[in-house]
Input
Amino acid sequence: MTISGAGIRRMRLLRSIKQEHLAELLGVNQATVSRWERSQLALSAEQAAKLERIFSSPQHAVVDAALKQLVEDSVRPVHLICDRTHRLLAASRPRQTEWRAPFGAFLGRSLFSYASAEIAAAEQSLEERGWHEGRLSSLILDTGANGNALLPIAAGRVIWERIMLSDGSAGRLVTTIG
Output
């Protein structure tokens, strides 16, 4: 596949994929994607093949848009993040009302800096539990309060559910259950 830098950018924007996410899917950093888009760096054959798979799948936008809509329409406090980067992908209105800043301030950004000590400890245990290999698909945990005024997390209980997104990356559905 031969695609210009402008073509990469156009295809990425048509699919509403951020440079950082495309970089994650291709196993490079965001600066590399930026250099590709400015035609300052050529793609390897392997990268071009991966890019073609990502851009040629018409299902990505439709499937993920349906999932996003389900999350946003939920009557429960729930949000969807990228499982590896913790970038916010979607949130229900009940979840958004817990936050003290507009939803747009968090969308596409990692929420990990707001994690309570309990959430951070659970995150550290995921590798040994086999979470990323798919041996564990859900986990119930007590959150503990984070004391943050902007994105407060109250002490409570949540369930983490690992789900595959249409582009092959994993998402994590976070639902307050108590």
The CA atoms of residues 74 and 92 lie 6 Å apart.
